[in-house]
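Aim 2, interim progress. The first record below pairs a target sequence with its structure tokens.
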Amino acid sequence: MHALTFSSFGGPEVLRYIELPDPQPGHDQALVRLSAIGLNFADVYRRQGRYHLRGAPPYVAGYEGAGVIVSAPAGSGFAPGDRVGFADAPFANAELVAVDVERLIPLPDAIDADTAAASLLQGLTAQFLANDSYTLGRGDRALVHAAAGGVGGLLMQWGRARGATMVGFVSSEAKAAHLRAQGFEALTIMPPAGSNFDVVYDSTGTTVLDSLKQVRIGGTVVFYGMAAGQPPAVDPRLLMDGSTRLVGGDLWNVLTSAEERRRRAGELFALIAAGSLQVPVAARFPLAEGAAAHALLETRATVGKVLLLTT
């Protein structure tokens, strides 16, 4: 098989498209031939040597993809030809990948491989944020940082489908225009203290103290990322004075079983099929041109998912 690899850390130029031995699945794994692979910032960080990394050089990054079963263990419920996706299986930047059966998510007819690879990781995160970290509902007023990004964009739509008023905070006027075209209010300047949001979703990290000032008395700040760097220390008295909740959010704490993965993915896919969630794809690259895909993602100018395709 061919795979997108790197043997040293650095910029996109360290990536190499080479031939490697086909993976040999274990007794509880299926072999999947991938069609579409989701490129995420975590893959950039792995290439840079800044994030956890499995295996040995030449390294194969990637954790999200969709394709077709080649082989599966007897009694697993999967068979050759079944269409599947996954959001948390390593070594996905390749034509073939061995995936733990419990991590496989069957794809309904309405969800093609591109949509699955573009939506599973960010979509399951948005589902978790809208249900577990804070339950968005009708009448809620929410501010979402990085609202034109993969998670932010889906969370904005998810909240609207629930009847919440979703306001997006973005880094450029172009991204604000993208959100406004979808009917959302969008801001490029941090809202003032006392904006009285019911919930603020903060994936920036450095803005946590600002977020705490923007929620109403008894409001909630959901902290789930550090895109701009480490968050500042929070004085617990700030939480006491405003009866404010500061909640952490990590998807991996709830993807605890095959049943839970598939239940949550089923809710995601149902909203996509119903048209309540649009999944934008910013660009598609052949896997062999993965360096160009990485370079594009690093500009942070894209709106939507960057996909790597094997065919």
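The second target in this work package is listed in the same format:
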Amino acid sequence: MERVTTITIDRIAHDGAGEAIHNGKKVRVYGMLPGETGIVELRKRKGIFVGELKELIKASPARVLPHESHFLSCSPWQIATYPWQAAQKFALLQELYGYYDDLPKPSFVPAEQLSRYRTKIEYSVTEADGKLALAFHERGRWGKFVPLPDGCMLASDQMNRAAIDTLKALERARYMGTEIKSIIVRESKTNGGVLACIYVTTRERKELHLEGIGVTGMVLVYSDPLSPASLASEVLERYGIETLAETLDGVHFEYLWDGFFQNNIPMFAHALMEIKEHIDPMDNVLDLYGGVGTIGISIARKAKQVVGAEISDSMAAFAQLNAHKNCISNYHSIAHPAERLPDGLLGKDTVLIVDPPHAGLHPKLIQAILGSTPKKIIYLSCNPETQARDYSTLREHYEVEFIRGYDFYPYTPHLESLLVLSLRA
């Protein structure tokens, strides 16, 4: 296949890339929309032909100018109008569940806020013009960086300023770019407060001067340089407050600097409201992948009792603490993996709530569900593809009551989806 060629995009793939068939081969190009023609430079990566747009010849009516030069690294759909984005996401949800003719029609909730919505953002660090710079990886080219002098529009101005000022403090302390793996900034959208988490690849203590940096807390973490992920091997220094707090529907949640919390608070509130509508006062609820109790504690006032299970000891402990601080007595948290539940926890009278990671439900959990057949499953997913895959296994015993998508991540191809299943009669 030619290295540089002219390609017309046929459709949008599930990962958000434009897709075309060229010389009998499938080609994926980020930054192009269906119907567009462009000159593309091709390369083969993991057996797939990937293209980089060099010149646009014919533009889609939905194309707009991107807000940022680095848009391919963070939000590749900045090139399209928001109505087009919402329509694509709704179409994806309909396609995933369109194989079944006995399902209710899906619905879709568009985003309320298109930028500055994230509660967490992770910046890599590179060197540009002899100075440290925030950066994102180039899409599809791990190890190559795009410098970000002003941060990113997905984070608030306060988060971006905190990241930039933190980087300046690291530079004054004479950290080299190769010694800094990432800077993660987290912000409470409802209670205020900003945390900066610095992941470094050296245990050498260097004097950090943090005066004037607009954060309520900061954590300096040693992270194994052999791993590309920002994972904590050892906490080197702590400054200020290590927790953040959010308030949802009158319930106050606290979480640690390394704990999970939803990235788009207004959209999560939409999903949470609809989860509550499927809970009855006499329900015994099991909330798996429960985190710090955001779903389980929120619905506890409507249910008979709720057990939240979370694999992380610290998050399970915070869930119990959050229940106590909110005077919720019918919620109990356990530190336990979802795929190895204690006997008797999942029964026929259980309403099961699951909010799994991107990979979906563990096969052992699916077998436990099929063996115990809880009366209802409420499945919130950050990956509708794995959710639809899991439903294809569960559908022998369950029928769909409700399907709805939510645009948690505008300008990206990602969406959240809520599926409610009840036992077939």
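The chain has three domains: 4-63, 86-113+264-423, 120-242. This observation will shape the mutagenesis plan for the next reporting period.
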